[in-house]
Write a structure and sequence with these properties.
Shape: globular
Pfam families: Sigma70_r2, Sigma70_r4_2
Strand content: under 5%
CATH topology: Rna Polymerase Sigma Factor, Chain: A
Organism: Jejuia pallidilutea
Family: Belongs to the sigma-70 factor family. ECF subfamily.
GO molecular function: DNA binding; sigma factor activity
Protein name: RNA polymerase ECF-type sigma factor
Number of strands: 0
CATH architecture: Orthogonal Bundle
Number of domains: 1
Amino acid sequence: MTDEAQLVKELQSQQHKEKAFRVLMSLYKERLYWHIRNILKSHNDADDVLQNTFIKIYKNINNFKGDSKLFSWMYRIATNESITHINKNAKRLQVSSEEAQALAINNLTSDVYFEGDDIQLKLQKAIATLPEKQQLVFNMKYFEDLKYKDMADILETSEGALKASYHIAVKKIEAYLTSD
């Protein structure tokens, strides 16, 4: 039995769930945080969404069937929670989700946890101009170096579609970065 299969078995058993969940959090907390942070930009928002993600994972682990990797299943939850957060924020601010993302980018300069320079900031602004799916694909490939196969599991789409989205996203970002 693989380590992941063993962990899932323990997560799904009432007797070992708490201990197994602590192991799961220590294994994936940082990777999920940065995945969420790449989508939301804000440290505080990423922390909140990470917490919500782990709550959902904990509550729904018995629904995990093993059709995909545990990692892919958790990333899908984190991605959906991030998108839900953006949409709620947009609704609260009465703006589109694109405008909410633009506001998040503008707030990066005042975020004490943002350590990027002007180039990083410009890259984040370029990413924010992309449609939501292209943003996700670009972030997952560029920042997290995920394989297309894993991305296809997470985003529930084909590898070919993801490669095309990434290629288009790169072209748009290059155009944005060279347009000054």
